[in-house]
Amino acid sequence: MTPTVRGTYSNTVTVAVSPQTDPGAGNNSATVTLVVFASAADIPTLSGWALIFLALTSAFIGFFTLKTKAAVLRAMKRDADADRVMDEAVAMSDAPVMGIHQYGTALIAAGNKEKAMAIFRMNRERHPDETFVTYVGLARGYTALGDTRNAIANWEIALKNIPESQKPNLPAYEQALKALKEKG
Questions:
Q1: Same domain, 72 and 121
Q2: pTM, whole model, 2 decimals?
Q3: Which of 5, 50, 56, 109 is most deeply buried (CB count within 10 A of its CB)?
Q4: Across residues 71-75, what is the average pLDDT?
C-alpha cells in the first residue's frame, strides 16, 4: 500500500507527495517526491506544503531525497539551508557518481567554481574505479577555474575511457578538448 497526501493550496497549486523506491539507496529506503503544478510566480505560496514536504523527508533519507529537499529549499530562497542539505547528500557513502557530478556541474553554472572543483575531486576520490564521469568532472572543474593544462590532461584520460553509452557525445567532448588545446 502506498500512502499518498494530496491537497490544493489557494485553489491554484496541487501538491502530491508519495513515497517511491530511491534507486540510489537500495531496496529498503524510500524517497518522497513533491510534484507541484504551479508557475514560478506561485512558489512563495507553497510555504505550507513545502514545510510538510520537508518534514516528511526526515523519514526517507537518501541522496535523491536530499537533492529534492535542497531544490525545495532553494525555491523558498533558503540557499544556505539548501547548500547544507547538499553537503549532507554528497557526504553519504552511497551517493551516486552521476548525482555528485550533476551537483558539481550545477555549482559551475551558479558561479561557484571552487566548490564545484572540490565536489569533482571528492567524486574522483570516492569512486576510483569510475574512469569517465569523474575525469569529465575534473576536466570541467579545471576549465571553469582557468587551469587549461589540468583540464586537457583530465579530458584526455576521460576520452580514453569513454563508455559505449557516451560515444554519441564524443564529438562534443573532442571539441571541448580541441578548444582547450587551441587556447593553450
A1: no
A2: 0.69
A3: 50
A4: 87
